[in-house]
Design a protein that fits this description.
CATH class of the largest domain: Alpha Beta
Shape: elongated
CATH architecture of the largest domain: 3-Layer(aba) Sandwich
Largest sheet: 6 strands, parallel
Order of helices and strands: HHHHEHEHEHEEHEHEHEHEEHEE
Number of helices: 12
Strand content: 15-25%
Number of domains: 3
Number of strands: 12
Distance between the termini: 69 Å
């Protein structure tokens, strides 16, 4: 017996592609009966039966869930946010007897359209090689997510309301619009009228929804929306620092800033202090997320907190239900204002 038999070897013997062998191992019903027969014959003849493949071929679940992170892996380490998101998912899966595999896949390919058939096929092929029972998707999900998972026929749920509408992909997210309005309601209650916002850009659904919540909060308070109080960052600390400086130079009357996430808020706080504004006195600052660093900065950050435990619970329970063939509705989780010293 050859000890280094690979999927490519099996594919060559069966006269099919490597991806077809992978699908036959993971999802036999996605392969034609003729191809499946040849693949199984080649696997048997070559004695290519690794443990996970053997379990898949006998219909036994792998007891593993893939968490697909549609960003470069380094993004996981930029902030503590993704740790807050992923840890409850991991703990809930462990309690249900499942392992978690983290799969990083950036969808920002400058040389190919992320909506092209070639790109969809490429991702589907790579994802199909993971021997898992289901997928949880986080990060910057591509618009063609439904097409990708239709090809591999594996249950999937997503964290974050997508830009696209999909009946096949269920999702769980914070109610970002309510959270944005909540931040403005609080600042209005503190008698603030020149309330600025720094968004994370208008490409991300969460940022768009928080911006809409900001505008609804102003309208509710009878405050006219003023575009000169709006800045759009690229959702990085350096970008948020630059736009905060620009905002404060053009509008000296700003008395409150709603930052669309905590990372932006940290940049706002630091920049205001550098410009000799009193944070929490001259200018109130409210963030969004309630990450660990919110209690490690000075002054302590007032922020709209996401319920990560409930989000993780809904994602895992939703995926397990889909794995049983049940229909799962998308859910929005209500955030909670966490009041500290910055506002």
């Amino acid at each position: 017996m050859r000890e280094n038999v690979t999927l490519e070897d099996v594919a060559k013997r069966a006269k099919v592609s490597r991806a077809t062998v992978s699908r036959a191992v993971n999802k036999p019903d996605s392969v034609s009966p003729d191809a499946l027969k040849r693949i199984n014959k080649a696997i048997a003849e070559m004695r290519y039966i690794p443990n996970r493949h053997a379990r898949a071929l006998t219909g036994v679940r792998s007891k593993s869930i893939g968490l697909i992170f549609f960003h470069d892996i380094k993004t996981l380490f930029y902030t503590s946010f993704w740790g807050h998101v992923i840890n409850p998912i991991y703990e809930k899966l462990m309690s249900e007897g499942y392992e978690l595999q983290i799969i990083a896949h950036s969808n920002l390919d400058e040389n190919a359209s992320v909506e092209s058939d070639d790109y969809t096929n490429s991702i589907s092929q790579k994802i199909s090689e993971y021997h898992v029972d289901g997928f949880i998707v986080v990060g910057q999900t591509p618009r063609n997510l439904e097409s990708i998972f239709n090809q591999i026929r594996t249950p999937v749920v997503a964290f974050g309301e997508p830009l696209f509408t999909s009946e096949a992909v269920s999702w769980v997210d914070t109610n970002n619009l309510i959270g944005g309005r909540m931040a403005v309601d609080y600042l209005v209650s503190k008698k603030k009228k020149k309330i600025a916002i720094i968004t994370g850009g208008l490409e991300e659904p969460w940022s768009v929804s928080r911006f809409e919540g900001y505008k609804k909060g102003l309208s509710k308070a009878g405050i006219e929306y003023d575009p000169s109080l709006v800045e759009h960052s690229s959702n990085t600390f350096s970008s948020a620092t630059n736009v905060t400086r620009r905002l404060m130079h053009k509008r000296h009357d700003v008395d409150a800033i709603f930052a669309a996430n905590d990372e932006i808020a940290f940049a706002v706080v630091q920049t205001l202090k550098e410009l000799n504004f009193g944070v929490g006195t001259d200018v109130l600052v409210v963030g969004f997320d309630n990450t660990n660093r919110a209690i490690q900065t000075y002054p302590l950050l007032t922020t709209v907190g996401q319920d990560y435990e409930k989000i993780g619970e809904y994602l895992v329970s939703g995926l397990l239900a889909k794995m049983k063939g049940e229909k799962v509705k998308s859910k929005k989780v209500t955030p909670k204002l966490v009041i500290r010293d910055s506002a």
